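re: ur question from yesterday

yeah so i grabbed the chain u mentioned. its 395 aa long if i counted rite. heres the sequnce exactly as i have it in my notes:
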Amino acid sequence: MGMFDTVSDETIKRGECTDIYFVRTEEILEKERVNPLVSMEVTAAALPDTWGIFCGLSDVLALLERVPVTVDAMQEGTLFYPGEPVLRITGRYRDFCRYETAILGFLCHASGIASATAHIMCEAKGKPVYSFGSRRQHPSIAMMIERAAWIGGADGVSNTCAPSGMPVVGTMPHAMVMCFPTPKDAWRAFDRDAPADVPRIMLCDTYCDEKAESLHAAGCGATAVRLDTPRSRRGNMRAIIEEVRWELDSHGYSRVKIFLSGGVTREDVIAYRDCVDAFGIGGAIANAPVVDFAMDIVEIEGKPKAKRGKRSGIKQVYELVCEKHRTLPVGQTPPANAAPLIRQYIVDGRIVKQSDMQEARKRVLAWIRRATDAAKDKNNKKGSPQKKQSGKSSA
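ran it thru and got these structure tokens back, copy pasting raw so excuse formatting
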């Protein structure tokens, strides 16, 4: 055991972080000399939302490298629906059965965070959203949280242990403001001493009401004011935001933006996206509901076989021209112009394709753009006036 209550990489890699019944199953099968060739698929019968974003594959690949199995999966960042297989493992059951616990843990948690982030980004309608929630989870998984949030479309993350290749953002906590005689002293010190490339976003609700502190901060060089009032004291948050905006504008600070954080939810993003310039999201990302994936045998010794409630046989998921999906048995002729979504990543324990975090993010951002554009078109059609009918009135 290490210093903290965490499990080491080596323990996970050896398959020793697992549910005890897999160890007992392995022992019994070994004694009985039973070790069938199986294919197992990972699916979610239901999702927290209408669709999810597949994430966590990179950890699965690291886990199963050099294990004598073949792994096929959707690419990370792929949108999926309930019931669709996102990953398939083929091999002798005893060779990988004890890894099921870790595999599901990797996929369930990361996909939940990526999915929640993507849904929030869709609702933000182009307003920047930052992941501020790693402090809501165990620090040992901070990297996973920020990676999943980044794949899900977040514009930046706050934890210093985030993988390289993404912006790490954040300015000041209430504690820093309180370490100075007055908030003005804190803001001026920040403006003097923070690196030049760090935005001058000043926290404006430590002692006084948001309007008063925002005006003072604007006078101390703020490019944006962050409102982080505890939810219990918010009152009418829209009225507070609108009042701050009014006072900033009327005092010549129209370029100073408003950044909202502190228990912000997806519903808050929808409610305030028209009057807030950016959001810091904590628990709504880091504490997102996991995707409840299950891993089930669908084929034994090349023959379709599944427990009740599951569809037997290995499958392929196709993306149609209309962006809808169709799941078919492998080998069945796909629809015209359909793109297969499940690809090969490991062959007999050898990784043949890696998962790319930035490419995964691009897939999600492309989907968000299409979804946002489709929503705009729908709203425009609803709001457009009806064309006048030609011809004379019968009245």
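noticed a couple things. Confidence is low (pLDDT under 50) at residues 387-395. also The chain has 13 helices and 18 strands.
anyway ttyl
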